[in-house]
Amino acid sequence: MVALVGFDPAFLEQCRAALENQGYAVFDEPDTEKALAGFSTRRSDLAKPDVWALGPLEPVPFLIAVQKVRGHPLAAKAGILAVNEKLTADEAAAVLNAGADDCYRKPFIPAIFSARVRGILRRRGEEKAAADDPNLWRFGPGLELHLIQRSVAVDQLRVPLSRGQFDLLACLAQSAGKAVPAAQLIAILAKSLLYVNATHLKREIEQIQAKLLRFGPWLAVLPDGSYRFQEPSQ
User: What CATH number is attached to the domain comprising 112?
Assistant: First the structure.
């Protein structure tokens, strides 16, 4: 379901038609306060909006409207699309920083509007799937390691690790802050290199640290020569 809030009648009908043609149910109210109050009084088993589209006739500033939606328990996890071609660039940035998923400032085109709604729903679905994925490990915030895809990302940018480097990092990350003996890590690295000793291990660890950028210090060598992956302050 998509909630359309603060749209004039002509604009509203264009939005409704664009969304219903894509198979979405539509709910409309003149302002955010009434819309949130309306859903608060409905039975909990009734559908709640997956996306809130806030239009140009919203009576309170967009920034406040976004904060109201984000702060409401029935809407906190929904997508938010701010639609107002009169927003300045600074105002649009403030709205996005306040929690809106997208901001549509250009002259209204129904097909683009519905595409932006679909984009928000797609991204929200991907985020939920990622949150439910037991093979995706998150550290930070900002560091992600996927055991099956054998991928590592820092701030959503992929980190290019060799096979051996990924295996080392995965082992350390799954050790939950416990020290891992160098001999165990050398044995792991030996699966991808012909010859490995403590010097080779140290070099690979240093390369991983450099590639992890601000997360590099999480990977540390201990006084006994073992290694640990843990937030430095812990």
Answer: 3.40.50.2300
